[in-house]
Design a protein that fits this description.
This protein has a domain at about 30-65. It has helices at about 1-25, 40-50, 55-65. With about 80 residues, the chain is mainly α. It has three helices and no strands.
C-alpha cells in the first residue's frame, strides 16, 4: 500500500512539473527560440518524450537565459 502511495505521489509530482513547463513553453514568444521550428520541436518533445522533456526544457531555459516568466501582456479591465 505504501509503495502504491509513493508511486502515486511521484506520478502527480511529475504530472504537475510537466504541465507547468508545457504552459511555460506555450507562453514563450517565437522570438525566444533561435530556430524557426524550435517551439514546434519542443512541443513534440513534450508529447513523445513526456518523462524527459520537462527536465530538458529546464536545462535549456537555464542555458539560454529564458528563466524569467514570459510576458503575458497587460489585459485592460472591462469595468468602467
Amino acid at each position: 500500500m505504501i509503495g502504491l502511495l509513493a508511486f502515486l505521489l511521484i506520478f502527480l509530482a511529475l504530472a504537475w512539473l510537466w504541465i507547468k513547463q508545457f504552459v511555460w513553453l506555450m507562453m514563450l514568444e517565437d522570438k525566444s527560440f533561435p530556430g524557426k521550428y524550435d517551439k514546434l520541436i519542443w512541443g513534440a518533445a513534450f508529447v513523445f518524450l513526456f518523462v524527459l522533456a520537462p527536465f530538458a526544457f529546464i536545462l535549456w531555459r537555464s542555458a539560454t537565459g529564458e528563466l524569467t516568466k514570459p510576458d503575458t501582456g497587460h489585459v485592460p479591465s472591462l469595468q468602467r
